[in-house]
Amino acid sequence: METTLEKQFGSVPVTSGELKQCLRGYRAPMARIAMLHRRGELIPLRRNLYLCSPESYSRELIANHLLAPSYVSYETVLSAEGIIPERVHTIRSSCMGRSRVFENSTGRYEYIGVARNYYPEGVGLKRTAEGMVYLAARPEKAVCDLILATPGLRLQSAKAAREYLEVYMRADMDAVAGWNADLIHTLAGLAKKKKNDLLNLERMLRHECI
Asked: Who's near 56: CB < 8 A, 6+ residues apart?
């Protein structure tokens, strides 16, 4: 039965309700779930959410399921795309609700709330090397999300935007030069705050990175 669970769900997080349905042949499915947890065959991610594949999983996919709707963003995307040199350990995502933090045996997950109309723009599906698919921001949006979420940060000119990326973030400016300035312009129009900061980022792309 345990092998069946891993075959059925693989590395996709699963709810306790889905597990109970699969274990309905047992007299006490919840007791069975507790036993599998004790034996290390189920990883608890949060209340009523588990992982059936302890040996192979995607933290980005876990992040999508821990709090939905959400998409992976911020330094997590920039690091994965090779835009910034640092490796990141916390998976940071944007969500439409209030900001949240989850910690479990797979790591730490942070969620930052964004405006509802801003949320879907510049978001799409990405695939891990293992073939698992998750929702994430494009690099342009990941930077916009980071600018919006950083207290005290003000990009008051295109030059300041370039210095932020090149000096503070140590970004690969050749990669940045290929970003979509139109997307950033759209995001600036949807953002509730720091609109001018994002517009200065757009100006930097159009006039300094060509």
From this structure: 11, 130
Place of tokens 């900061």: 197
Task: Give the amino acid at 128.
Answer: T
Residue 150 to residue 134: CA distance in whole angstroms: 25
Please tell me whether the peptide bond between 69 and the residue prior to it is cis, using omega within 30 degrees of 0: yes
Element (H, E) at 203: helix 195-207
Sign of the C-alpha dihedral computed for residues 88, 94, 99 and 104 taken in this order: negative
Other beta carbons within 10 angstroms of residue 29's beta carbon come to 17
Q: What gap in Å lies between CA 173 and CA 161, rounded to an integer?
A: 12
Beta bridge partners of 129: none
Mean pLDDT by 10 residues, the chain (210 residues): 61 84 76 81 90 84 96 97 95 96 96 96 90 94 98 95 96 95 97 95 81
Kindly write down the DSSP assignment for every residue of 172-186, as one continuous string: -HHHHTTS-HHHHHH
Distance of alpha carbon 95 from alpha carbon 170, whole angstroms: 26
pLDDT reported for residue 35: 81
Comparing C-alpha atoms, which of 186, 185, 190, 189 is closest to residue 202? 185
Is residue 22 within 8 A of residue 62, CB to CB? The reply is: no
Please state, in angstroms and rounded to a whole number, the distance separating the CA atoms of residues 41 and 5: 10
Strand positions, DSSP E, 35-194: 43-46, 49-51, 70-72, 91-95, 100-104, 107-113, 123-127, 133-137
